[in-house]
Amino acid sequence: MPMKSFRQAINEALRQEMERDQRVVIMGEDIAGGLGAPGEDDAWGGPLGVTKGLMPQFGRNRVLDTPITESAFIGCAAGAAATGLRPVAELMFVDFMGVCFDQIFNQAAKFRYMFGGRAVTPMVVRTMYGAGFRAASQHSQCLYPVFTHIPGLKVAIPSNAYEAKGLLAQSIRDDDPVIFFEHKVMYDDEVDVPDEPYTIPFGEANVTREGDDVTIIAFGRMVNFANQAADSLAASGISCTVVDPRTTSPLDKETILETASETGRVVVIDEAHPRCNMATDVSALICENCFGDLKAPIKQVTGPHAPVPFSPALEDLYVPGVPKIEAAVREIMGKGH
Amino acid sequence: MSDIRPIVMPKWGLAMIEGTVVEWQVEEGAEVAAGQDIMEIETSKITNVFESPVEGPLRKIVVAAGETVPVGALLAVCAPASVGDDEVEAYVKDFLDNFDWDAAAGGGGPAPETIEVGSKRMRFLKQGDGGGTPVILIHGFGGDCLGWLFNQEALAEGRTTYALDLPGHGGSDKDVGAGKLGVMVQAVLAFMDDRGIAKAHLVGHSMGGAIALALAAEHAERVASATLLAPAGLGREINMTFINGFIEQKRSRKLRPILELLVADPGTITNDMVEEVIKFKRLDGAVEALTKLRDGLFPGGEQEGFPADLLAGLSVPVQAIWGEEDQILPAAHAAVLPDSVKVSKLPATGHLPHMERASEVNAAILAFLA
Known about the structure:
The complex is a heterodimer.
Chain A: E1 3-5, H1 6-20, E2 24-29, H2 54-58, E3 63-66, H3 70-82, E4 86-93, H4 101-108, H5 111-114, E5 124-129, H6 144-148, E6 154-156, H7 161-173, E7 178-183, E8 190-192, E9 206-209, E10 214-218, H8 221-235, E11 240-244, E12 247-249, H9 253-263, E13 266-270, H10 278-290, E14 299-302, H11 312-318, H12 322-334
Parallel strand pairs in A: 2-3, 2-4, 4-5, 5-7, 6-7, 10-11, 10-13, 13-14
Antiparallel strand pairs in A: 1-8, 6-12, 9-11
Chain B: E1 5-8, E2 18-24, E3 31-32, E4 37-42, E5 48-51, E6 56-61, E7 68-70, E8 74-78, H1 85-98, H2 101-105, E9 113-117, E10 120-127, E11 135-138, H3 152-155, E12 161-164, H4 181-194, E13 200-205, H5 207-218, E14 223-229, H6 240-248, H7 252-259, H8 271-282, H9 286-297, H10 308-312, E15 318-323, E16 342-346, H11 353-356, H12 358-369
Parallel strand pairs in B: 11-12, 11-13, 13-14, 14-15, 15-16
Antiparallel strand pairs in B: 1-8, 2-4, 2-7, 3-6, 4-5, 6-8, 9-10, 10-12
Helix pairs in contact in B: 4-5, 6-7, 6-9, 7-8
């Protein structure tokens, strides 16, 4: 299989789904141009080059450059989805979602329910999340817990390029609104990605490592750190299972509970702020369902309850990294009884 | 220094850029013979034994069990007693200092090609560039062109070899028509026409064995010889637990026991192999293709089988190789083959003789081609 970057994988999924289904359209700020681009069509292919080549191939009727008004074009996408298109909107930074919460929480997420199942809303909102981009507190948050909270929305957080292509294709073919999270420092990361179209079903966790001592549950970019920590810990005789839930809504509770029960020791890694995030959610799920199997308290490794700092030195400290994960695993191994 | 012989991580198949030493079967100081099983190495398919390419006392093990290193990295050194320990140490240090770790991790080598044959996408892997009659490798149900990782390079020495992705498989078009064997036979013929191959030696595994046999019987003018590895089509019985499980199980935990039916030693199936099968099945149209093939080839849970007169009329050289512990297609099926067909049965071997007993199978194929 050829190696492809996260950026190429997203581009390929968009292109293949647009070829497959005429109803798929994409929209967003600068998706045919790009930040600082010289002005001509498709100069950069969006602020991060993700949509490069799509406008020349599919034309301006299916690749829509929008004004900088998230409230307008996210509302437009919800309406287009309800009336028969399958829009994929790019909302550059998830931090900007605040201006279109009504369109997402109260409209898109509720159409199916409020219209008695007689309406579907097959829209996807692609958005960047996460720290590490030196973009300061207003462009670095991990807001997926907020969307996971809302019934009617689905939330996908791919952990690498292979996952991204399959989960994005699945998002576009899904009849419900999907918020699709792309970590902004992962666009150049490469793995093997098939050329052919494929889908990864929602609600099926991926067990990336299998071990006996500790179960690490991690989300998005953190899955890669968890894998590195597991490999490093294996060398010192601690064997870890690593679970990538892939989607936080729906959530594969079965795999989480099963793997937690198997080892009896759980570390949950979430880049988001620590209150009401996926780590607290998963910890509560495990405590409620398999407390009797636990040999040690669940350990959470998250960002702090503070805005993401602009200082590069402080930002690096902010992100849960491999050393923090390893320390957490060693700590609950010590507490085992 | 010239008496020091390195043992390096082998490259088994294109996808292999690194390997993990699972277990050493010899200790430092032991006398090693060329061809002796000395360690087990994990690959993208099954854990396989590695035969020593050199002989002599095993002076130093450089890579311990459990470690993963790139292809070409130094695993151990052999040297006669006359070579001093300091010379061995100096050799190892020199090797490690000069080994290009970055280049080794990058892989490289030939990659599969994709072509249009009669408006259908077809992927294949070509290795070797020799003259004479080429060899075509035909995989089984659910397989692909990369499944010959332990064989193709050995067969490609001095001749051209093509490993195919059949319709519905690997990177080829997922349209399998009515899911009958004839669709597969025609696809191989169309590939041969497209590549200008008048005649070829065929090596077919399982369903690919049935395809090779059908070609040998019905298109003898295009077939120089056929090697059938655990071929389908010779009896009614087939393990439908395997076929149905292969199609239906989507998670590694559930799929692994199904794939373990393929081999005599279940522990040899690697996580990579399970993952690759799951990834293949996620491709658009793959599960539909496998389902159509199951319904077309094994209606009612049984094989249709070749008519006896077709087997009796074989005019090209055919050999069959079967694992005695094959749990998918029993080796007893070989009984219906005419006397002209040489049958080899391998002990302690399951349904993947070309992986489980690669060197013996390679030797049998090479002898047959000669």
